[in-house]
Write a structure and sequence with these properties.
alpha+beta; 11-stranded mixed beta sheet; about 30% helix
Length: about 600
């Protein structure tokens, strides 16, 4: 099928719209030849008619592109998510129905200016990681059509990779929003469960499902997530976003977990093994400290998903339809869902108790690391191989993904290189729920350190989008310290005991006098802002939870306090300042510019 040659990244579209170089109608009309072409990759189940697409674009005329965050942005929708213009099939023609309203997430995106272009192919009822379990045909990889696209959100990924949409919606229960991203050189973000409303989505495992996002960059995924996320009282599994905590994604130093060598599985794929090793090295070059972790509790959790009673939840999701139309399902889907009827309610409780123990063991890792990195998949299969061995090879692709929602983690899959044969490889960064923002930011840094192109069209990867909005507040406060609270000095424990983390070393603007105050122990310095005669002072920035900030400030004795400190780069931060009256009788150490140098000089 013809591929779009237009760079559809959000940054590129925003530039064209705000400059007046393009209009939404112009973009849609330019896309139409590719959207209406023969679907050789088996991307689509249904497509928006030309007239309706033009109507969506025309409705944006006269609106300021800067007032709508997704103004004129074309997007695709996995066909288990409702759009009133087209039937929802979940890749099962007998199940097809005409939705009466848009899914909540779809409506939020349209209200923000986005334009839906079609409903995409998937593994039937979102059961699979391969993209071949569909009566609409096996969705073909965007780089080599002989290979699987990944699933179940197969068409959603390939549509973005081939330039037919700027972003797309998938769903993710066991990896469906991540594996296709890895196989098509895309970002695939699996949000914290409950952040995106499931209203209007056909469930697979209702207690574990989440709508997911495919995009060309992490900044694009973050923009879409910012629009789409909202508490929905109609969805009993919906929850509001919480503060993300320490922003390890933007920090110059962070800690990341890497599975022990005994737990890494590449199914004989030496190229993927080497590419993963390179990704670990890149994270270290970005400021990460590698920490080896035991993946065993994660892997045992993963086995619960398909070897335990959670499979019965797939049956529960479509029980009336399945009982009446079992013969009309794809053979592999029918086999997986049909077997689930053997599970007892007692088995479900036993599995829940086991999951609680495994989560306790898995969560222990967060005492030592900010996030964990794994391959998104351990290898990549050809379509003919999967069709010959559909269950086992599909299970292999879920080795690093199946545990994620059971453990209530957020995850971002990012491009991380190419094999010598030109096929993409990806890794996944994951962390506890509500760490979506830091994951996306660290993922963006890793993406830019690993690849130079986006999708299968190989558009140049743009520089970091500095205007990408923050997804959620961190709930953290930054404070600059210059004396006894510096790392390794006597009062630093007042910070670390409150969960504070070192962000990095900085220097103040050259507008401060620096004094060694009388008294102690411990000895303390004071910074006083002056009009002239000052110097730049060495400082450290620490970040601590906002709930701890009040008690920290309450323990600071006069003449010290917390105020606004100007930094050398022109920015400002809350930090230690001193009353000017304290300079009387204090030792002026401004020339040293550093409390550590003063302590060293005093011996």
């Amino acid at each position: 099928m013809p591929e779009s040659t237009m760079d559809l990244s959000l940054a590129a579209l925003r530039d064209r719209y705000t400059s007046g170089a393009s209009t939404p109608r112009g973009v849609i009309e330019a896309l139409l030849p590719a959207l209406e072409a023969e679907d050789t990759h088996r991307i689509w189940i249904s497509r928006i008619p030309r007239e309706r697409l033009i109507a969506y674009a025309t409705a944006l005329e006269g609106k300021d592109p800067r007032t709508l965050p997704l103004y004129g942005v074309p997007f695709a929708i996995k066909d288990n998510i409702d759009l009133v213009d087209l039937p929802t099939t979940a890749a099962c023609p007998a199940y097809s129905y005409a939705p009466k309203r848009n899914a909540t997430v779809v409506q939020r995106l349209i209200d923000a200016g986005a334009i839906p272009v079609g409903k995409t192919n998937l593994d039937q009822f979102a059961t699979g990681l391969v993209g071949v379990r569909s009566p609409y045909g096996s969705c073909r990889n965007s780089f080599d059509p002989a290979f699987v696209s990944g699933g179940s959100s197969s068409g959603s990924a390939v549509a973005v990779a081939l330039g037919l949409a700027s972003f797309s919606l998938g769903t993710d229960t066991a990896g469906s929003g991540r594996v296709p991203a890895a196989f098509n050189n895309l970002v695939g973000h699996k949000p914290s469960c409950g952040l995106l409303s499931a209203s209007g989505m056909v469930p697979a495992c209702r207690s574990l499902d989440t709508i997911s996002i495919f995009a060309l960059t992490t900044e694009d995924a973050q923009r879409v997530l910012t629009v789409a996320a909202a508490f929905d009282a109609e969805d009993p599994f919906s929850r509001a976003a919480e503060p993300s905590g320490f922003d390890f994604g933007a920090a110059p130093a962070f800690r990341f977990g890497v599975p022990d060598a005994k737990d890494l599985e590449f199914f004989g794929d030496a190229a993927y093994r080497e590419l993963f090793a390179q990704s670990v090295e890149r994270l270290q070059a970005l400021g990460g400290t590698r920490v080896t972790i035991d993946l065993a509790p994660f892997l045992e959790t993963a086995r619960l998903l398909y070897e335990g009673p959670w499979v019965a939840e797939r049956y529960a999701a479509i029980r009336p339809f399945f009982d009446e139309h079992e013969a009309e399902l794809h053979p592999v889907t029918r086999e997986i869902v049909g077997k689930s009827r053997r599970w007892l309610a007692a088995d479900a409780y036993d599995a829940l108790y086991r999951l609680k123990l495994l989560k306790r063991a898995a969560d222990a890792v967060w005492r030592d690391v900010d996030c964990v990195v794994t391959p998104t998949a351990g290898t990549h299969y050809r379509i003919d191989a999967v069709e010959a061995d559909p269950i086992r090879l599909n299970a292999n692709l879920g080795y690093y993904t199946n545990f994620m929602n059971l453990l209530d983690y957020a995850a971002t899959a990012v491009p991380a290189g190419f094999t010598s044969g030109g096929m993409p490889f990806g890794v996944t960064l994951f962390a506890p729920a509500h760490r979506d923002g830091p994951l996306l930011r660290l993922g963006g840094r890793l993406q830019r350190a690993s690849v130079r192109t986006m999708g299968a069209r190989r558009w140049p990867l743009p520089a970091d989008d500095a205007v990408a909005p923050p997804f959620m507040p961190t709930g953290q406060v930054r404070v600059a310290v210059c004396g006894a609270h510096l790392s390794g000095l006597p009062l630093n424990g007042q910070l670390t005991a409150r969960g504070a983390r070192l962000v990095g070393a900085v220097r103040s603007s050259p507008d401060y006098k620096f004094y060694a105050l009388p008294g102690g122990p411990p000895k303390r310095p004071g910074m006083v802002r002056v009009v002239e005669g000052g110097a730049a002072i060495d400082m450290e920035i620490w970040e601590l939870p906002a709930r701890e900030f009040g008690s920290f400030v309450a323990g600071i004795p006069g003449p010290l306090g917390i105020g606004t400190v100007q930094l050398e780069d022109g920015s400002s931060v809350q930090g230690f300042v001193c009353e000017a009256i304290a300079a009387a009788g204090a030792e002026d150490i401004t020339a040293l510019g550093s409390w550590r140098r003063y302590l060293a000089a005093k011996g």
